[in-house]
Amino acid sequence: MTTVLEVAGSDAELRRFLHGLPGVDKVGAEARAAGLGTRSIKTTAKAWAIDLAIRMVDLTTLEGADTPGKVRALCAKGRHPDPGDLSCPAVAAICVYPLMVPTAAAELKGTGIHLASVATAFPSGQAPMAVKLEDTKAAVVAGADEIDMVINRGAFLSGRYLEVFEEIVAVKQACGDAHLKVILETGELVTYDNVRRASWLAMLAGGDFIKTSTGKVSPAATLPVTLIMLEAVRDFRAETGRQIGVKPAGGIRTTKDAIKYLVMVNEVAGEDWLHPDWFRFGASTLLNDLLMQRTKLTTGHYSGPDYFTLD
Amino acid sequence: MAFEYAPAPESRAIVDIKPSYGLFINGEFVDGQDRNKTVNPASEEVLAEVSWATPEEVDAAVKAARAAFAKWSKLDGKDRAKYLFRIARIIQERSRELAVLESLDNGKPIKESRDVDVPLVAAHFFYYAGWADKLSHAGFGVDPKPIGVAAQIIPWNFPLLMLAWKIAPALACGNTVVLKPAETTPLTALLFAEICQQAELPPGVVNIVTGAGPTGAALVEHPDVDKVAFTGSTEVGRIIARAVAGTPKRVTLELGGKAANIVFDDAPLDQAVEGIVNGIFFNQGHVCCAGSRLLVQESVYDIVLEKLKRRMATLRVGDPLDKNTDIGAINSAEQLSKIKALSKVGEDEGAERWSPPCELPSNGFWFAPTIFTGVTQAHRIAREEIFGPVLSVLTFRTPGEAVEKANNTPYGLSAGVWTDKGSRILEISDKLRAGVVWANTFNKFDPASPFGGYKESGYGREGGRHGLEAYLATH
């Protein structure tokens, strides 16, 4: 619908649109998320969900201490998460800092695993626009095919929606063919109304994915925040025909949690989103728990954490 | 690719259903004369044989309650509290057993009996246990006295929860009771009788007589009953009101409803849709306070309907013991035929009927979640209680029209208001003639909150401090 896509002429227009979205009742949204969390996913359904979750992992390392050695190890893990079981699928992507992109690109060549780089002065985004764009371009040139940018939360919280919008548009342009994931940093937006507005803003500006968090701010991803974002992508597609992906990141550590997210994707956005093209988990420790539960399901017993690689 | 949830059934091995049950009179199970069967409405499998109490057996139960009253009413409040606390704790300890049995006998999803019914039952006993030694501070005089023997008749929609609503305040105030569960759902009341034994409650304080209408009539008409408490249909409520008229018996009635769930255009729509679904499909719509009339502001009608239909398509109807089931079985063949008949009326009157595609089991009693659009106040489905998973959708243009339509019913048990505007919640709630008004939520219960109706929805309040009044000789 053209009306939706033409609201970005000024702060006032954007404000009218974003503040005209239906509000979110906090109690009700949290109750709905908790209700979905009580689904009981067993046996065949669990096996299916675990493999899908593994295929949706953006295996991530974002540390000051990252080195090419560490990144190479992570890429190896992403290709064959369980070296002892070749039926185990590979992860969706490896997610690193821009400086690590060349190393990861060499490792992932020909594997079909995507290479995501955070950019735009991640995690704070507190850098001049030119720097953010250079950051993005450098990552793409070095081989990243997915860019995880952060929005300007300061601008968003002070109501300078147009500024946030224009930054996303510019970064999207700098991405070229690379997919753009827009990190809302919901832990800093705080209210669900803000999460809904930021989701729509990011989608209107051309983001391909909306992502909850950098992982550097607490709380990171939560089920209710993801619920609001899934409702947003569902409603956005109904209105515009464009499908946008969702990526909760940070704080998802167990298979049980991952399955709760998949149930929510299934029942809120719908099965069209149950694919690594449209839903990702930004995680590092989650993968080994998925592998442990996978082994438990196939062999019938638990093996210790020492049987899974630490990278 | 579709995410198919594998069956996740709760084990029924935890509950030991006896082949046959007697009546619980004076602390013991005694064999009854008239044997009948109770079935699982999800499969029509016979669960057990139960006795339908004859007038003589009802008389024995009332006599036992009368005998026990002398001592129980004289017991210190703090000692009565000990028994109630003990019962509450045993309910928590045996919660899974109670939940499975409730789902088997009633047909409601285990998710609900486990997460709503049984926890509320325990909470109710804990709450009234707390009042037992504080009655002189409840605002009903310095030393309020119990009434005597209470005859309590409860419905089949929340068998154990309605038992708790009746028995907990009665006992806390020092009354003794004879309780009749509904004929289609007697089993959890009989398990509760075992819990009374386990708690070493003095014999005769709680008596449970299973049976149908004639058992209830014998109980209500018994001359030595001091108080009648009934939850059920307005039709039976009228019969009871007539039966006790001219006698000194005190009576409280909690009857039917046709609640309006009002959605304004500034409502949090996604949560409102959850509230609409919860309002009418919770417990298969077998809820006296169900939000069975959706009043939606015309300016958001299309989007609300679209969201509602999409949400309804995700409801899982089927095996009540499956932990992923959202909607279970209709409680009885009789109720199913009532729902079918009124739905037929809705179609004949020209309302548009819609249900999501959903496969219903071949055995048992089932009805797909259903909405009727294009309904007006003149339609019977907007006026009569259907007591099933059937929602009538009406529209309004202004707040005044919403209030007028909401109140334009002989009932007045509950209502819902959905808006992001706090001042509107206060204004509308004040004008709604309904015992409970929920704002931006629906079907929320708490033992501390009084519950009861206006007009033909009954009189008296249950729950909270107000609920004590029904069991104290205050005038």
Write the layout of secondary structure elements.
The complex is a heterodimer of chains A (311) and B (475).
Chain A: H1 2-5, H2 11-19, H3 26-36, H4 43-55, E1 57-60, H5 68-79, E2 93-96, H6 101-108, E3 114-118, H7 129-141, E4 146-150, H8 153-157, H9 161-175, E5 179-183, H10 186-189, H11 192-204, E6 209-211, H12 223-240, E7 245-247, H13 255-269, E8 281-283, H14 286-299
Parallel strand pairs in A: 1-2, 1-8, 2-3, 3-4, 4-5, 5-6, 6-7
Chain B: E1 23-25, E2 28-30, E3 34-39, E4 46-52, H1 55-72, H2 77-93, H3 95-106, H4 110-131, E5 149-153, H5 159-172, E6 176-180, H6 187-198, E7 206-208, H7 213-221, E8 227-231, H8 234-244, E9 250-254, E10 260-263, H9 269-281, E11 293-297, H10 301-312, H11 333-348, E12 352-354, E13 370-373, E14 390-396, H12 399-407, E15 414-418, H13 422-431, E16 436-439, E17 458-459
Parallel strand pairs in B: 5-6, 5-8, 6-7, 8-9, 10-11, 10-15, 11-14, 13-14, 15-16
Antiparallel strand pairs in B: 1-2, 3-4, 9-17, 12-13
Helix pairs in contact in B: 1-7, 2-4, 3-4, 4-5, 9-10
Number of strands of chain B: 17
Radius of gyration of chain B: 22 Å
Strand order within the widest beta sheet of chain A: 7-6-5-4-3-2-1-8
The helix/strand order of chain A is: HHHHEHEHEHEHHEHHEHEHEH
The helicity of chain B comes to 25-40%
H-E string of chain B: EEEEHHHHEHEHEHEHEEHEHHEEEHEHEE
Shape of chain A: globular
Looking across the biggest beta sheet of chain B, what order are the strands in?
12-13-14-11-10-15-16
Shape of chain B: globular
Radius of gyration of chain A: 19 Å
Q: Quickly give the structural class of chain B.
A: alpha/beta
Describe the sheet with the most strands of chain A: 8 strands, parallel
DSSP summary, beta strand count of chain A: 8
Query: How confident is the prediction overall: mean pLDDT of chain A?
Result: 95
- Could you tell me the mean pLDDT of chain B? 97
Q: Which structural class should the secondary elements of chain A be placed in? A: alpha/beta
Largest interface: A-B, 29 and 25 residues
Into which percent range does the helicity of residues of chain A fall? 40-55%
